[in-house]
Amino acid sequence: MVVTFYLYKMDNKRPIGVFDSGYGGLTVFKSIAALMPQYDYIYMGDNGRAPYGNRSFDTVHQYTLQCVEWFFELGCPLVILACNTASAKALRTIQQQNLPRLDVEKRVLGVIRPTAEVIGSYTKTRSVGVLGTKGTITSGSYEIEISKFFPDIKVHPLACPMWVPLVEYGEYMSAGADYFVEKYLDELLTGAPDIDTILLACTHYPLLMDKIRKYLPEHIQVVAQGGIVADSLADYLQRHTRMEEGITRNGSMQFYTTDDTSDFDHHATTFFGANVHSGFVHLK
Length: 284
Ligand code: DGL
Description:
The protein is built from 14 helices and 10 strands.
């Protein structure tokens, strides 16, 4: 990590940081990098401490803040929390309490608000299923944010606590994954048969997309956040020219994990769709 730190300082890079508890953020990073390949990026997955989904507010805040500080040390002026759980449980405290102390010039953005802003354009029945981790769902963040933009939409939230472990432990292709995908979708649709749109409010869930589609009627559309967050970031950078000018543009991507790098490289290469060679991060 020390070597990397000096490398970055010598390179004088100021990349965009993209953070998740593990692999899920790669589904967002893929869309961001495809839309804006010109910038430098660092992706970091805190796989060593994933899943975050069942952890307390304090723990998610403490872990997320530690990772945000790590990105700042490497020179990132902007960090995207490509994780709904961290966005729901840590973002506001980081923005309001930590950032003023850490660095008033830097920014940390999440994924919930940009998703809430556009979800109304997907649904005709105004009945939307929101699937997320226990942390995201119990925070009530999606009901609150969606009601600000679309008070007519009825949100049906459901926690799917087994889905992230299936991805993190490499079981996303297994029969066990089929069982848990069908189980939660049945539960959601039995409770709200008029749903026409299901939002995957966890960045890990698109990695189960084939199985999710398999257990849903065709008329229900499934919304993943990658494209939404990428569009929203492009819009943000267009409106914040000083920030945009501060990000370096060599089209580079660096990947880091807090767990075994060969495991990370193996799965991340599949999820990201390009060869990934990660570095290990030891967070003290
Ligand atoms: N990708 C994270 C999210 O969007 C999953 C969190 C986890 O349980 O680690 O919520």
